[in-house]
Description:
Helix 6 (about 140-155) packs antiparallel against helix 12, helix 7 packs antiparallel against helix 8 (about 190-210) and helix 8 (about 190-210) packs antiparallel against helix 12 (about 255-270). By secondary structure, this protein is mostly helical. Helix content is about 60%, strand content about 0%. It has a two-stranded antiparallel ribbon with strand order 1-2. It has a domain at about 85-280: Telomere repeat-binding factor, dimerisation domain (Serine Threonine Protein Phosphatase 5, Tetratricopeptide repeat), CATH 1.25.40.210. InterPro entries: Telomere_rpt-bd_fac_dimer_dom, Telomere_rpt-bd_fac_dimer_sf, TERF2. One of its GO terms (cellular component) is shelterin complex. One of its GO terms (molecular function) is G-rich strand telomeric DNA binding. Pfam families: TRF (PF08558).
Amino acid sequence: MAAGAGTAGPASGPGVVRDPAASQPRKRPGREGGEGARRSDAMAGGGGSSDGSGRAAGRRASRSSGRARRGRHEPGLGGPAERGAGEARLEEAVNRWVLKFYFHEALRAFRGSRYGDFRQIRDIMQALLVRPLGKEHTVSRLLRVMQCLSRIEEGENLDCSFDMEAELTPLESAINVLEMIKTEFTLTEAVVESSRKLVKEAAVIICIKNKEFEKASKILKKHMSKDPTTQKLRNDLLNIIREKNLAHPVIQNFSYETFQQKMLRFLESHLDDAEPYLLTVRLGPSPITMVCP
């Protein structure tokens, strides 16, 4: 979700929660229009008026009303500083509740192959990251998982990039995020190995299916040349690239949907499966006492 692969800091640090633009897929320079451009616009967090004077007027009105509120003292509510601190803590708690709720919904959408819904929810979460969350370590894992899933969801779109400086494909970027997950989730090599291989294989095959044979060759040499366990697959892919043979069974039998769902199951297996707080709140005739988790 947040900092781009290869450039991010620890998941609990400012790079994850405070840099929303870094996870936005962007259209590669030199390409015109296409699906990449449309998805890039969605991630840009558009909407609302583009009139700068309108926004300025709104900010002036907001500051004016804020000054009026700060100047008022209501009995029994404590001083302005106390009320302000309480409101800040409440907003942080509510923001965490909402973020975790939407993360739960994003996983549900991905699991149900509703990828359009997943992208919309991802953008909502992205917008929420500019607000205070407090206790950032409690949401760092879900943000890393969203980073990985966002790249996997965009993986077939080679016009999209999460790492403009490195010119990586989305799945190459996903490989890097997976390494961050391994470190930050304290996973062993044995646990991550099979999923990493899946992403590497998919990264090469998607380039082949898009007839980007030179790019496929570069990814293959970079990520699969030193692994003896993938030697046969590597040789098959090298021959496919050399012959530009899109009819080969390795290409024809590859299912991106199956790959996506395997990666989701892997990531979910390392997450807390407790329901988000907002799903546990039951509305009824009795007043609800909310305790900030």
